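User: I've been trying to design a sequence by hand for this structure and keep getting stuck. Would you show me what you'd pick, starting by listing the structure so we're on the same page?

Assistant: Good idea, let's start from the same input. This is the structure you sent:
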């Protein structure tokens, strides 16, 4: 049985394409390993089919391990959802609707990462805000954020 480089390339592209439909970043790494192997087979075409499959398995497991132990923890550390009130103090958000009067609770702020389970919150403040201003959470009182201008 002869496995050509383009077989691995096609398999890799199909697996990467299937990753778009599924979630979890598993098929992607099998596809990346297949594409990497297609390059190796194009450079060294005398690699036996059994050894190619072995290399693909090792490459797949290595890339999954790299994702799971190196990349994923870094992403989780940078994108965290604040779930306790103490965790939200100091979080920055963008004003999407400013209050009509200072101290009024009619302002709305949006966060890129959920704060206490929500992306948007009502807020009040002693400062004056316009849409697009960046604010920082000072405290949470009765399900309303108290913020100040950054």
């Amino acid at each position: 049985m002869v496995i050509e480089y383009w077989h691995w390339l096609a398999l890799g592209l199909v697996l990467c394409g299937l990753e778009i439909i599924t979630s979890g970043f598993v098929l992607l790494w099998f596809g990346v390993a297949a594409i990497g192997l297609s390059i190796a087979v194009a450079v060294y075409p005398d690699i036996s089919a059994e050894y190619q499959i072995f290399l693909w398995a090792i490459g797949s497991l290595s890339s999954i391990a790299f994702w799971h132990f190196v990349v994923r923890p870094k992403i989780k550390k940078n994108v965290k959802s604040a779930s306790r009130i103490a965790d939200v103090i100091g979080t920055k958000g963008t004003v999407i609707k400013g209050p009509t009067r200072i101290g009024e609770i009619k302002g709305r702020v949006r966060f890129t990462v959920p704060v206490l389970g929500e992306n948007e919150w009502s807020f009040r403040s002693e400062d004056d805000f316009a849409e697009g201003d960046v604010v920082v959470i000072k405290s949470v009182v009765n399900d309303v954020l108290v913020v100040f201008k950054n």
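That's my pick for every position. To get oriented when you compare it with your attempt: The mean pLDDT is 86. The domain at 85-149 is CATH 2.40.50.140 (OB fold (Dihydrolipoamide Acetyltransferase, E2P)).
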